[in-house]
Design brief:
Length: 1182
C-alpha cells in the first residue's frame, strides 16, 4: 500500500548515469545538440502506484532546450495516496555551438592540471624512453569534429627529445565555434652526456651553462645573437636576478621564448649511444635515443656477487667467476683484484688498522644528556630515530629556504635525536653503533643548516651555555679591529690589510720585549687567518665546536669501539677528505675496502682520495680510475632508472633518510668532484679502459650533474658554492683542452673557442661564490683569454676590466701590485669604449692592452717557448686544471693575498712602529668601502641579484658585466662595469708565513690556458661593437677609487650610464653616494630622477630610503619629494622603517597633514577613512 518505488526507469535516447536502482533518486544524461526531446519510461514496483513526469504534459515526452540542463521529475505516488517518492533526471542538451571536450586521455602520463572542459592548457611528463603517446580526446556530441595536430588520425603522436606541443582542435557541430586545447608533453631528461655524430651540430645545440644538449630550450626575447638555454638552467640563473646571463642586459617583463621548433630540429639529429664507452657503436636519432638506451645490450649491469659493472650482454658469463675468497682474510674479492687486495687492503696482512684516538665524553656531549627513567639504550635510540623521521617531514622545498611546515624546526628534531643518542651512549659507552648514529645526526644538522637554510633556534639556556665561547670570539674580533685602527687600516678593512696590521703589531711587540702580548697577537693572527681558509667545509669539519667537526669525533669514537666495521672506517676516511687530508684518508679507506671489498662507496672514496693526493695516484692510477668510474656509473644508472619513472620526478629530491646513509647521490659534492678527478687521472692514461668514459665526457658529466643539482638545492649555502665551483672549474678545464687542441692544429683563432670563452667569462659574473683569490683569478684568466681570442671585442675588454677591478677590491689597495691592477682595469675599460663602432673581430690588439703586465708576461712566455723549440728543447706544456684536486668553492679561497699583496713575512722588520699608518686607500670611493658593503652594493664578482639591497631587478645588471644596451645614444665621451665598493673583508688573503695559516693541500690556482698567438694578421670584420653602459660604469668606479681630479670625470661617466640605461640602479646610487658629503641635495636630485616602475622592488626601497634619510637629515621637511618617498618606502618595507622619521616630524607639531598622508598612502586608503581618522585622533593629528 505504501510502496512508491520504481521497478524500472529508462529513457530514449541516451542512458542514465548512474545505472538505475530503486533506491537511487538522482540521475543525469547528456544528449547531442540535435536531440530536441526525450522520452521517459518509468515502471512502478506496485501496480497500484501511479506516477507523473514533469514537463511532459501528462505524457512521457519532455521537450529540451538547446545548451541548457532540463530537470525532469518523476513523481511516484503509492497506492495509499500519501506516500510519495521523487526521481530526478538532469538532462543536458548540448549546444550546437559548443566546441569543448568532455575528456582528454593519455596512454601514459598524468595531466596537470586535472582535466576540465573549460581549461585549455595542460602539461605532462613521460619517461625518457617513451617515444610516442596516444592522445584520446572525447566529446559529448558525436557531431563535434576533433583534430589532433591537424589530423583526425588516431595514430600515436611521436615525441621529441624534450617538449612536444600537441594541439587538439575542437569544432562545434554547427561549425560556428572552434576551441584549441594545448598539451605540452615533456620527456624526462636522460641523465647522461650525449654525443652528436656531427661535432658542429653538437656545438650548435649545446647549452652554455650545463654544456649538455639543450633540454626544453628557452631563449631570451630580442637577444642578438639569440641566447638559448636549457629551461632549468635559465630558470636558476634568473631566479634572483632578472638580467640576461650572457650579456647582462635587463630582462623585459615577458622575456622568455619557447623554442619548440629548435627542439624539433635537434630531435632529428644523429647521436651516438650513451654507452659508446662500453662498446656500443649504434647511431640513432636523438628522439629515439631513450628507447634504445633502455634496450641496449651494452648498458652496464652489476654482477650480483662481486658488484662490478659489465655490459648486460656479458652479465651471465661474468657472473660465473665474479669473486674468490682471499686465502688470508677469507673475504670475497673480485677475481681480478686479488693481487691489489693483498698488496694494499687485506686486513690479515695489514694489521695496523687502528686509529690514534681516545673516546671520551666531551663538554658539548655532556650538555646533550637529558634526564630520563629509561634504562634501555636501544629504546632511546629508537626514540631518536622517530625524531629523525619527523625532521624529514618538515624540510622546506626548493624556493622556500629557511621556512618549514609546523611549529617545530627540522633542526630541533635533529637536536632532540642527538640528545637521546648522547643519553643512550651514557648508558652504553662501548656500543660503537650509538656513537656512529650520533655522528650521523650531528652531520645532518650541518646539512640542514647549509642545504635548507634552517637557522638554529637559540633558547635562553643555549645562550647561557654558549656565552663564554661567544664572548671569547667577540673579544678576539674587537681586539683585531682595535689593532687595525691603531695601525691605520681602519675597522672592517679587507682581510689582507687586517692580517698585515696584526703582523705589524706582532713585530712591534716583539721589538718592545712584550713577548706575552706578542704571543696573544700571534694567536689572533692564526684565528683570523682561518677566515681565509679555501674550503669552508674543511674548516667546519676540523672545528670541534661545529656540528661537522663533532660528527667527525663521533665517527672516530665509533671506530675506536668497532675497528673492524667498514662503515666506521669509510666515514672517518670521508671526513678526512672533507678536511682536505687525502693522504690520511687513503690509509683509512683502504681498511674500509679491505673489510668489505664489494662496497661501492668505500671503493669510490678510495679512488677519490688516491686522485686528490698532492702527487696524484702515482702507480695506482688504473686502480683509482676503476673505483671512480664504477661509482659514477652507478650514480648515473640510478638516475637513469629514476628518469624513466615520472612518478618519482617530484619525490627524488625529497629527503627520506640521513645524507650519510645515501652517499651515492648527485648533490653529494664529493661525487661531483669524482668526475673531475676521473678526467684528471685519465689524462695520464693513453686510452681509458672499456667502460670508462673519456676525459671530455667525464667533464661534461660533471657539468651536467652540477647544473642539475644547482637547480634543485633549496638554499645557497656552502654546498651550493661548492657545486657552482665544480661547474665553472669544469668549464675552464674544457676551455684549456680546446685551446691545447687548437694549438696543436695551428687554429688558435677558433670562433667556437672564442664563444666558449666569452660564455664562461659571462657566467662567472653570475656566480654567487663569495669573492676570493681562486674565483677572481679564474675570472681574470678567462677574461684575458677572451681578449687574446677577440682582441677587438669591446665586451671582452670591459669584462677584463671587471675582473681586474674585482682583484683590486679584494687586495691590499696600498700595495704596488693593487695599484697597478687598478691602472690596468682603467686601460681595459678605456680600450673597450674606444672600440665602440669598430668591427668586433680581427684587427690589432689595442695598445692599452699590450701595455699591461699580464700581456707582456704572455708574450715573453711565448717567445721563450719559441726559443726553446728552435734550440731543440721541449716547450713547457700548459699545466692542466686542478680539476681533480678537491673542488671546493674558490670564493673561500686560499690564505694568500690576492695578486702578490705586499703583506710582510714574519721575522722581517715591521713596516712601521706603533701608530704608524700605511698610506690611505686612495680616493673618496675607496675610503667608503665598508659603508658601501653595508648598503649592499653590487660587485662584478657576484650576480646582481645577490646584493644586499634585496631582490634582483633589471637595474642591477651592471654588476654582471653585461650588455650592449643602447637605450639612448651615449655622448662622445671616450671613457667603462665593475664593483661600486670594496668587497667584504672575508674574501681577503695574506702571504704572511708566521703564524702559519693552514692552506688546503688539495687546491691550487687554476693554471693559465694555452696561450694563442699574441699577434694577429686578421682583417677587422664582423658586426660593429655596440655602445655599452657597462664599460662606462666600470671606468667610473675605477676613477672613484683613484679619487682626486678623477672624481669629476667619474661623475660625467655616471651621467652617461644613466642616459644610456636609465633602469640601472647602481649608477644612481654610486653617483649620489659620491655627492652626499659635498652636496646632499644634489644627491637627492640624482635619486629622484630614477624611473621607478611597478611593482616596486627592494632596490627601489634603497633609493627611496636614501632620499628620505637625506631630506630628513637636512631638515627639508617641506620638500615635495619627502611624502611620496616615505609612502613608497613604507609600502615596500613596512611602517617600522618610518618610525624614527615619523617621530621626528611629530615633534615639530607642524607636519600633521604630511604624516596623515603618509599613513594613508602606505595603507592604500583615503585620509578621510573612518578607521584612520580614529588613529589620527589618537596621535593628535586632527
Amino acid at each position: 500500500m505504501d510502496n512508491a518505488d520504481l521497478e524500472r526507469l529508462s529513457i530514449s535516447p541516451g542512458k542514465l548515469s548512474p545505472k538505475f536502482h530503486p533506491n537511487t533518486t538522482e540521475y543525469s544524461v547528456t544528449l547531442g545538440s540535435d536531440v530536441s526531446q526525450i522520452k521517459v519510461d518509468p515502471l512502478t514496483s506496485d501496480s497500484g502506484a501511479s506516477y507523473s513526469i514533469s514537463g511532459s504534459g501528462g505524457g512521457k515526452t519532455v521537450s529540451l532546450k538547446e545548451g541548457e540542463v532540463t530537470p525532469v521529475k518523476v513523481e511516484v505516488t503509492a497506492e495509499d495516496g500519501s506516500t510519495i517518492k521523487n526521481y530526478f533526471i538532469h538532462v543536458t542538451r548540448l549546444s550546437a555551438s559548443d566546441a569543448s571536450l568532455s575528456e582528454l586521455k593519455l596512454s601514459i602520463g598524468l595531466l596537470s592540471p586535472n582535466f576540465a572542459s573549460n581549461i585549455t592548457s595542460y602539461s605532462t611528463f613521460v619517461p625518457f624512453s617513451c617515444s610516442s603517446v596516444e592522445i584520446t580526446p572525447a566529446v559529448a556530441d558525436k557531431k563535434t569534429a576533433v583534430k589532433v595536430n591537424g589530423t583526425e588520425s588516431k595514430e600515436p603522436t611521436a615525441l621529441r627529445y624534450g617538449d612536444t606541443v600537441v594541439e587538439v582542435e575542437v569544432t562545434s557541430p554547427d561549425t560556428t565555434n572552434k576551441r584549441t586545447y594545448l598539451l605540452v608533453v615533456s620527456r624526462l631528461k636522460l641523465p647522461r652526456p650525449i654525443e652528436f655524430s656531427d661535432e658542429k651540430q653538437q656545438l650548435r645545440f649545446q647549452c652554455p651553462v650545463c654544456l649538455g644538449i639543450l633540454y626544453r630550450p628557452k631563449s631570451i626575447k630580442d637577444s642578438d645573437p639569440k641566447h638559448v638555454f636549457c629551461k632549468c638552467c635559465i630558470d636558476e640563473l634568473t631566479r634572483t636576478s632578472k638580467v640576461d646571463p650572457l650579456d647582462g642586459s635587463p630582462l623585459a617583463d615577458i622575456w622568455r621564448t619557447d623554442e619548440y621548433e629548435l627542439d624539433k630540429e635537434l630531435s632529428s639529429q644523429q647521436v651516438f649511444c650513451v654507452y659508446k664507452h662500453w662498446g656500443c657503436g649504434v647511431e640513432v636519432k636523438l628522439c629515439d635515443l631513450g628507447s634504445h638506451v633502455l634496450q641496449c645490450d651494452f648498458r652496464p649491469a652489476a654482477v650480483e656477487k662481486g658488484g662490478q659493472l659489465v655490459p648486460t650482454k656479458d652479465l651471465e658469463e661474468k657472473s660465473k667467476e665474479a669473486s674468490k675468497g682471499c686465502t688470508d682474510c677469507n673475504r670475497p674479492v673480485r677475481s681480478s683484484e686479488l693481487e691489489e687486495h693483498k698488496t694494499f687492503m687485506c686486513t690479515s696482512k695489514h694489521t695496523n688498522t687502528g686509529v690514534r684516538h681516545k673516546s671520551e665524553v666531551r663538554a658539548w656531549e655532556k650538555r646533550l644528556h637529558v634526564e630520563t627513567n629509561e634504562k634501555s639504550a636501544d629504546k632511546l635510540a629508537k626514540t631518536a630515530e622517530e625524531q629523525i623521521n619527523e625532521c624529514f617531514k618538515v624540510l622546506p622545498q626548493h624556493g622556500n629556504a629557511g621556512h618549514y611546515d609546523g611549529e617545530i624546526s627540522p633542526l630541533r628534531y635533529l637536536e632532540r635525536a642527538a640528545e637521546w643518542l648522547a643519553t643512550a651512549i651514557k648508558l652504553s659507552p662501548k656500543k660503537a653503533d650509538l656513537h656512529f648514529q650520533l655522528g650521523q645526526v650531528l652531520e645532518e644538522q650541518h646539512y640542514v643548516q647549509d642545504v635548507y637554510g634552517i637557522k638554529p633556534e637559540k633558547s635562553s639556556d643555549d645562550e647561557e651555555m654558549d656565552f663564554n665561547m661567544i664572548s671569547k670570539e667577540s673579544s678576539k674580533e674587537d681586539d683585531i679591529q682595535a689593532i687595525c685602527e691603531l695601525r691605520g687600516a681602519g675597522r672592517n678593512a679587507p682581510l689582507a690589510l687586517q692580517l698585515k696590521a696584526i703582523d705589524e703589531e706582532y713585530h712591534y711587540l716583539l721589538d718592545q720585549g712584550q713577548s706575552d702580548r706578542a704571543d696573544y697577537v700571534q694567536k689572533l693572527y692564526g684565528w683570523k687567518s682561518k677566515q681565509a681558509t679555501q674550503n669552508k667545509t674543511a674548516q667546519l669539519a676540523s672545528n670541534e665546536e661545529e656540528p661537522l667537526g663533532k660528527a667527525y669525533l663521533k665517527y672516530l669514537d665509533a671506530l675506536v669501539n668497532g675497528a673492524d666495521n667498514h662503515l666506521y672506517n669509510l666515514h672517518v676516511g670521508r671526513m678526512l677528505l672533507l678536511q682536505s687530508k687525502p693522504e690520511e684518508a687513503v690509509s683509512r679507506l683502504q681498511v674500509a675496502v679491505g673489510l668489505k671489498p664489494t662496497s661501492l662507496e668505500a671503493r669510490f672514496y678510495l679512488g677519490l682520495a688516491l686522485g686528490q693526493q698532492k702527487d696524484g695516484p702515482g702507480k695506482r692510477k688504473e686502480e683509482a680510475v676503476k673505483y671512480l668510474s664504477e661509482g659514477i656509473e652507478h650514480l648515473l644508472n640510478q638516475m637513469t632508472v629514476d628518469a624513466n619513472d615520472p612518478s618519482k620526478e617530484n619525490k627524488k629530491w625529497q629527503q627520506i633518510t640521513l645524507s650519510s646513509n645515501n652517499l651515492s647521490r648527485p648533490d653529494n659534492v664529493q661525487w661531483l668532484q669524482g668526475c673531475s678527478v676521473l678526467s684528471n687521472v685519465c689524462k695520464q692514461m693513453t686510452t681509458p679502459p672499456s667502460g670508462v668514459m673519456s676525459r671530455v665526457n667525464a667533464l661534461h658529466t660533471a657539468a651536467m650533474l652540477a647544473s642539475h643539482v644547482l637547480t634543485h638545492l633549496v638554499a645557497r649555502g656552502d654546498t651550493y658554492h661548492q657545486v657552482e665551483w665544480v661547474l665553472y672549474e669544469t668549464h675552464f678545464t674544457l676551455l684549456q683542452m680546446k685551446l691545447d687542441d687548437a694549438k696543436s692544429k695551428g687554429n688558435q683563432k677558433n670562433g667556437e673557442i672564442s664563444s666558449f670563452c666569452e660564455n664562461l667569462s659571462a657566467l662567472l659574473n653570475c656566480s654567487v661564490i663569495p669573492p676570493g683569490k681562486q674565483i677572481l683569478e679564474l675570472k681574470e684568466k678567462t677574461c684575458q683569454q677572451a681578449v687574446l681570442l677577440q682582441s677587438c671585442n669591446s665586451c671582452a675588454l670591459y669584462r677584463l676590466g671587471d675582473a681586474q677591478l674585482s682583484l683590486y677590491d679584494n687586495d691590499d689597495p696600498t700595495s704596488a701590485n693593487a695599484k697597478q691592477t687598478l691602472e690596468e682595469a682603467e686601460l681595459s675599460y678605456r680600450a673597450s669604449i674606444e672600440l665602440e663602432g669598430s668591427p668586433s673581430f680581427g684587427g690589432e690588439m689595442p695598445a692599452k692592452i699590450t701595455d699591461q703586465r699580464w700581456f707582456k708576461e704572455q708574450k715573453a712566455k711565448k717567445e721563450a717557448e719559441k726559443k726553446a723549440a728552435a734550440a731543440g728543447g721541449t716547450p713547457q706544456k700548459t699545466a692542466s686544471s686542478p680539476a681533480g684536486k678537491a673542488a671546493s668553492p674558490a670564493g673561500r679561497g686560499g690564505n694568500q693575498a690576492g695578486r702578490g699583496s705586499s703583506t710582510p713575512t714574519r721575522g722581517k722588520p715591521a713596516v712601521g712602529g706603533r701608530g704608524s699608518s700605511p698610506s690611505t686607500r686612495g680616493g673618496a670611493a675607496a675610503a667608503k668601502a665598508s659603508s658601501g658593503v653595508a648598503r649592499g652594493k653590487t660587485s662584478p664578482t657576484k650576480p646582481s641579484g645577490t646584493a644586499g639591497r634585496g631582490g634582483g631587478t633589471a637595474g642591477r645588471s651592471a654588476a654582471r658585466g653585461g650588455s650592449n644596451i643602447t637605450t639612448n645614444k651615449p655622448s662622445a665621451h671616450k671613457s667603462g662595469a665593475c664593483s661600486p665598493t670594496k668587497q667584504p673583508a672575508s674574501s681577503k688573503h695574506s702571504t704572511q708565513t708566521k703564524p702559519v695559516a693552514q692552506s688546503p693541500v688539495t687546491r691550487s690556482t687554476p693554471a693559465k690556458p694555452a696561450t694563442p698567438n699574441l699577434t694577429t694578421e686578421q682583417k677587422p670584420s664582423g658586426p660593429p661593437n655596440k655602445p655599452s653602459y657597462n664599460a662606462r660604469l666600470g671606468l667610473a668606479r675605477v676613477l672613484m677609487r683613484k679619487g682626486g681630479d678623477s672624481i669629476s670625470e667619474a661623475h660625467t661617466l655616471y651621467e652617461e650610464v644613466i642616459s644610456m640605461a636609465p633602469s640601472v640602479h647602481d649608477a644612481y646610487i654610486e653617483l649620489a653616494d659620491s655627492l652626499i658629503k659635498t652636496d646632499p641635495m644634489k644627491a637627492v636630485d640624482t635619486y629622484s630622477v630614477y624611473p621607478f616602475k611597478e611593482p616596486l622592488t627592494f632596490d627601489d626601497a634603497y633609493i627611496y630610503g636614501e632620499m628620505v634619510r637625506l631630506l630628513m637629515k637636512n631638515e627639508k621637511y617641506d620638500d615635495p619629494r619627502l611624502g611620496p618617498s616615505m609612502i613608497s618606502l613604507g609600502k615596500i618595507m613596512g611602517l617600522t622603517v618610518l618610525e624614527k622619521y615619523v617621530e621626528a616630524l611629530d615633534k615639530t607639531f607642524k607636519y600633521s597633514k604630511l604624516l596623515k598622508e603618509v599613513y594613508a598612502g602606505v595603507h592604500g586608503k583615503s585620509v578621510d577613512d573612518s578607521d584612520l581618522q580614529q588613529f589620527f585622533k589618537f596621535k593628535c593629528w586632527v
